[in-house]
Each structure stands twice: as C-alpha cells, then as structure tokens.
Amino acid sequence: MPDFFTSIGTLLDGSFLQSGALWALSTIPGFPPIIQTAHILAIAVVMGSVVLLDLRILGLAVPSQKISEMTSRLMPWLWWALAANLISGSFFLFGRPLRYFNNPIFGWKLSFLLPAVLLALFFHVMSNREEGYWELNSKRLWSARAIALLSLFLWIMVAMAGRWIAYVEYIYYPA
Amino acid sequence: MGFLNSPKWIDVENWPISWEIGGTSWFPFLESIHVIAAAFVVGSILMVDLRLLGFAAVKYPISTLSKELVPWSWGAFVIATITGLGMFITRAASHVVNPAFQWKIVLLALAGVNMAYFHFRVYKNISQWDNDLPTPTQLKVIGSLSLFLWSGVMLAGRWVGHII
C-alpha cells in the first residue's frame, strides 16, 4: 500500500471520528447489520440506476426507454445512492480505520470506484449538455457503448471488492 | 420442531460439496455473487415498485416496465438462489434454527405471494390502469409491500451472518 494511503488510517485512528463511529456501532442495538443493509440497499439503487442504464446502452435491457431520458431520470438516483453509501460506509471506515487503510482489497475497491464515479459523472454532464448527446452519431453511440461496458465492469468490481475486504484478512493473513 | 432439529441437516453439512465450498475461497466468491445478484433483484424491481406508487418512470405504462424489468429480477433471483443454497449447505443445521434465516425465508415467501397476487389477480385488468396517475390504491399497496418485504429480506439476510 502507498504510504499516503496507510497514513490516512493512522490519522483517523484514535480520532473523535473513530470514537463516534465505535460508539454508534456498539451502543445502538442492531446498528451494524442495519447500517450494512442500508449500504447494500444503496448498492441496489446503483444497480437500478447506472448498471441498468449501462445494460440499456449495450442493447441488453429496457428497449422501450430512451438513453437520454433514462440518463436524466436515473443519474440523480445514482448520486443520492452514492451519498448514502458514503455515509453508511464511513461508520465502518471510521470505526476501524487501520483495518481498511492497510487492506489491499480496500485499495482495489477505491481504485475501481473512482473511475466508475468519474465515468458516470462525465456521461451525465455530456448528456445534459445537449439533448440526445450520446445518440447523435455512430461515433458517439460507440463511445457510449464503450463507456457502458467499462462502467458495468467497474461497478461489479466495486461490489465484489467490497465483499472481499472482510475475507482477505482470514484467507491470506491467518491470525 | 423435529424438522428443524433433524440430524439430516448435519448430513447436508457433511456432503463433499459442502466441505469443498466451506473450506475454500468458493464461499466468499459465492457470497460476493450472492450480494451482487440480490442487489440487482432489488434494483431492477425498484423501478416497477416506484412506478406502482406513482413516484418514478411515470412516462412508461406499468405493463411495459413490468415486461422489461421483471425477467431481469427473476434472472438475478435464480443466481442469488443458487449461490445462496451453496452457502446454506455449508452450515445447514445452524441456518435452519437461526432466527434471522427463518425471518428471511418467511419474508421471501411473503414477497413471492405479493408478486403472485399482482401477477395472477391484478395484472389481467392492466388495461384499466396501465397509464393511470395517481395509481389505484391497490397498486400502491402492492408496490409498498414489495419495497418493504425486499428490504426486510436484505436486512434479515445480512443479520444471518451476525448470528451464525
């Protein structure tokens, strides 16, 4: 792991953010599974927004919905879902910062997440710029398909990596 | 309680395939696929449920959304079921007596009943309200129940791992 990355963990370790998160996780009955469920439900919204849009652009799903209309309708859902994911995820991140910032799979998760978010942002911004931007000519349509394929891969890997953060510890680093 | 405490569940745990899954990276692999598939079940059904409530995708007839989205929900559900069974057999005896797991099965069954009611009882009159806004109360109830029950399935499912 790069030094700057692990040092974020060291910085957060012992901070008031950690004590706050640990207080919530250990004091409120059922808080960990409830927050994890909120995190997964927000992932479901990611699936129902950007992933569904990707499948539409690739010609696999919802043929009656227009790409431009879907983009303006679904992208706000993605941004709200990601905000919910950030908040629900941060309870665990702040609770045990060293666990995450020293875990290579967490590093992978962020490495998939950042380009996935930037790609979605780019797609949304360009779509807002001009009505039917991504369907105007075949060059743009093929760019949209390439973006959709990459985006689909990245979001699946984000979810996959998220689940493996917990497993990598005992599979590869037996205590 | 004979069924749930039956020694047969221990036999299931001792199947060679159960040992193979439980003792290798197969388990986390199946679980990641399970979570992704389950999230996709809810994500794809969400647009239909919100349309039934009149909150989203209101430009589209309910029948079109249902026809184009529900097959995706079913496909993802099949994947979630197969991967779920793969995990279940590794700890079958503990799972059947785990209250979170029992809740999950009950909520799944109720979600199934809700869906079947929509599909077999309500759907045949679809031409009467396919484009209606606001949607009839009956549809609002079905959409809300679906959202509530599927969220419950997710919560119970996540809770299984905290009890076992």
Describe the structure.
The complex is a heterodimer of chains A (175) and B (164). Chain A is mainly alpha-helical and 175 residues long. Chain A has one domain. Chain A is 82% helix and 0% strand. Chain A is built from seven helices and no strands. In chain A, helix 2 (16-27) packs across helix 4 and helix 6 (104-129) packs antiparallel against helix 7. The longest helix of chain A is centred in the C-terminal third of the chain and has 35 residues, at 138-172. Chain A is elongated and about 55 Å long. The relative contact order of chain A is 0.14. With 164 residues, chain B is mainly α. Chain B has one domain (10-163). Chain B contains seven helices and no strands. Chain B has helices at 8-13, 16-22, 26-53, 62-88, 92-96, 99-122, 137-163. In chain B, helix 3 runs antiparallel to helix 4 and helix 3 (26-53) runs antiparallel to helix 7 (137-163). Chain B starts with 7 loop residues before the first helix and ends with a helix. The model of chain B has no long low-confidence stretch (mean pLDDT 94). The A-B interface holds A 30, 32-34, 36-37, 40-41, 43-49, 51-52, 55, 61-65, 69, 73, 156, 159-160, 163-164, 167, 171 and B 25, 28, 31-32, 35-36, 38-44, 46-47, 56-57, 59-60, 64, 68-69, 72, 151, 154-155, 158-159, 161-162.
Which key phrases capture this entry?
heterodimer, A: mainly alpha, elongated, B: 164 residues, mainly alpha, 76% helix
State the assembly state of the protein chains: heterodimer
The sequence of SSEs of chain A as H and E is: HHHHHHH
> Main β-sheet of chain A, in a few words?
none
Task: Give the overall shape of chain B.
Answer: elongated
Number of domains of chain A: 1
Rg on CA atoms of chain B, Å? 18 Å
- Principal-axes geometry of chain A comes out as elongated
Greatest interface by residues involved: A-B, 32 and 30 residues
Number of separate strands of chain B: 0
SS element count, helices of chain A: 7
The parts of chain A where pLDDT drops under 50 for at least 5 residues are none
Tell me the major beta sheet of chain B: none
Individual helix count of chain B: 7
Number of strands of chain A: 0
- Helix/strand-derived category of chain A reads mainly alpha
